[in-house]
Write the structure tokens for this entry.
Amino acid sequence: MKPISHLLLCFVFSLITISVFAQDEIYDEPARIIDTLSNTQNSRESRQVDRSDKKEESGNEDALSKLEKKKEKLNNLRIGGSFGLQFGTYTYVNVSPTIGYLMAKKRLELGGGPILIYQRYRYSSNYAVSFFVYGADVYAKGYLYKGLYLEARFDPVNKPSYFDLNKRLWVHHLLLGVGYAAPIGKIGSFYISLLYNVLDNDESIYQGTFSDELPLILNMGFGFGVGGK
């Protein structure tokens, strides 16, 4: 019986030892729980932030592109004209604004506007004659190279006859010539052109700049875009 009892004691002792070591091993290395849901949510949020940032950048670029296109269209709209002042024995006031638009890749400008002129001739201290001239100016400019352009203008005007101031009549002018547009800043231009009055006659309001017998007119004006820089 003793050998059997000894064996039973050894077996029980072995079980107790194994359970103690097993418990130590379990408590020494506790299990770790990984929060996969939190990591997935964080990654989704980060992706959403990246997408929103990209959308915002894309939206800003689209807004800038639209603004630039709008400015370009407005700058193609040209505001300008011809203005003149002279006072004394002969008074001359010319207010002739124009509005035009650049098209065909900025190779062609079409436009027009009113012609308003006041003239006064003082023949003596007691006698002077004054009158108004009004009409329209329609023009076309075809740009050739770096500001050099061909120009055509048609100007019908109503005025008193130079031979009978009590009689008013319509006089037509067809001006053809060449010119040059010098830039003023980024959105403006100064125009100077030499034009020939094809329909020249004694009632014409355009007299030759260099000679009364040669109907060559030196014309100057300006134009600005309205879109800004």
